[in-house]
Each structure stands twice: as C-alpha cells, then as structure tokens.
Specification:
The chain contains five helices and no strands. Among the domains are: 30 residues; 58 residues, no CATH class.
C-alpha cells in the first residue's frame, strides 16, 4: 500500500465552499477561549490545593483561605477608614472556621508531649512486689528469730577495758521499742 496522496488527490485541509473567517469571528472565538481559560483558572485555584496533597497541606490551605475571608469582611478598628465589605457576623464566622482548621492542623505542626509509661521486663515483673522498707526489715527480723539467729534475751556485753581517758559513767536507761522504729 503506497503512502501519501495520489496525484491529484487531496487530503485534509479546509473543505471546498467553506467561507473565510472574518476578523470579528476570530475575536469572538478568542474571547470564548479566554473566558473558558479564566473559568478553568478560577476553578483550579479552588480545587488545585486539595488535589494530591497531604492532609496537613489541605488543612493549612483551608486555614489560610478562612483567614483571608475573615480579613476581607473585617470591621474597621478605631482610627482606620471604614471597610466597604465590613460584616461583623461574616467576619466572626470565618474566624471560627479558621480556628477549627487551626485546631485540626495543630498536631501536625507542634508535637504533643505526653508521659510515657515504662514497663518492667518480664523477668522482673514476676518477682514479688516491693515491700515497704520498714515491713521488709520487720520480716527479716522475724525470720532471723525463727531460725534462732537472734536470742530473745540480750547477751551480756563483753567486758570493756577501762582506760584512764574514759571515765566510768552511769548506764543510760533504754526504753522499749514496739518494732515500728519509735521508742515508747
């Protein structure tokens, strides 16, 4: 099959009998194309930030949009010229929405510090729970008494050598202790 046109054959181009376009038709067609492009650009500004973005980026965009809208209808402060678009209710509405976006965006921008529980390794967790130090001492004392390591009566103290430097003194009376560490 040969490629290309046969001699005398015409392919493509304008069909016979089609009138030329006038400059006014060209201007109209161009105006329609411009209007369509502007409409797409406006739609793209609204939709584009939300396409293929992370959630934090979409939230940030929404917060910025609400902030601009709130600034647009902000009431004038004392000493400022009057804002022609002033609407306090609308301003408060956009500020509230901006706050909602900011609240949702906060965990993405600032870390939240929380207490972290540290678990004991499995080997340590099987041990008996820690006793109060006094209770532990009392249990040790009772165990030593049961094994006979402690006598019920005090053993006489070994005879101390009397030196010239240390004068003999009277024995100090000892108060009885009820095993809680406080003398009665």
């Amino acid at each position: 099959m040969p490629r290309g046109a046969q001699p005398g054959e015409r392919r493509g181009g304008r069909a016979k009998g089609t009138p030329n376009r006038t400059p006014s038709q060209k201007v109209q067609d161009l105006a329609v194309k411009v209007a369509k492009a502007e409409a797409r650009a406006k739609a793209k500004v609204i939709i584009e930030p939300l396409e293929h973005k992370l959630a934090k980026d979409a939230l940030d965009w929404g917060m910025q949009y609400c902030m601009r809208r709130a600034a647009f209808c902000r009431p004038a402060l004392p000493g400022e010229p009057r804002n022609p678009n002033e609407d306090e209710a609308e301003h408060l509405k956009w500020l509230g929405l901006m706050g909602e976006f900011a609240k949702a965006l906060l965990p993405f921008q600032s870390p939240k510090f929380t207490a972290i529980a540290i678990q004991m390794p499995a080997a340590e967790s099987k041990k008996q729970p820690e006793l109060d130090p006094r209770e532990q001492l009392w249990q040790t004392y009772l165990g030593m008494r049961r094994r006979g390591e402690l006598a019920r009566e005090a053993a006489p103290a070994p005879e101390a050598k009397v030196s010239d430097a240390a004068p003999a003194s009277e024995p100090v009376p000892v108060k009885e202790d009820d095993a809680d560490g406080v003398a009665a």
